[in-house]
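Support request, priority: normal
Reporter: lab tech (M.K.)
Component: structure prediction queue

Hi team, I submitted a job for SDR family oxidoreductase from Autumnicola musiva yesterday, and the status page still shows it as pending. I've pasted the exact input below so you can check whether something in the sequence is tripping the parser. The sequence length should be 245 residues. Please let me know if I need to resubmit or if it's stuck on your end.
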Amino acid sequence: MKKVLITGANKSIGFETARQLLQQGYYVYLGCRSIERGNLAIEKLKSEGLTNLEFIKMDVNDSVSVDEARIEVGKKTGVLDTLINNAGINGGMPQEALSTTIDQLQNVFNTNLYGVVRVTQAFVDLLRQSEQPRIVNVSSSGCSLALHSDPTWKYYDHKSAVYAPSKAAMNMYTIALAYELKNANFKVNAVCPGFVATDFNGHRGTGTVQEAGTRIAKYATIGEDGPSGKFISEEYNPETGECPW
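Reply from support: The job had stalled in the queue. We restarted it manually and it finished. Here are the results:
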């Protein structure tokens, strides 16, 4: 049975991704910083008859918490097949370039970039033990530099001086990570779940969490012929899936 760790898995897209991977036969470790919320998520999934899962307490903002989570998972398994870096924050509004504070930037980067780095570095040794290790870093087409430079893009006027830069930096980390692991049978991709209506964005959006979960699960389970080092947005490009950086 393959094993996956999903950060920020107690609600919304992370929770739905966990549900879909459980349905596909994965054993799921739900990473969440709140014990109460984590246990509620576990109870909800178990009430649906999904039993191959457990809660792992982890705050991606805290290196000590991430290291403790790595120790805890290591007590349960010597192999991790998939890591989904889903935990993220939007940083609140407004996010204007001239009024954004350094504190705002540091807070969001600490989760959206540094959190991904912390978790990936902590768990990569377990991933190396898998025959087909996969890493999905949950991104957003809204951080595409190419799209935001294109006045014809439908979201051109929706600029963000905090969230988008944090995810753009995460995308560059994804490129570097995929390159570094290219000879180790890894598949590493940045995947946009789509413009989904959740509490993350004030329930604005055109997609569903089910669609988002399916997109993330797809790249968490890709075969040897699948891409690596790519920026994927099937909402933006349904044909090839690739999104311009």
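The chain has one domain: 3-232. The helical segments are 12-23, 35-47, 63-76, 102-112, 114-127, 145-148, 163-180, 209-220. Let us know if anything else looks off. Ticket resolved.
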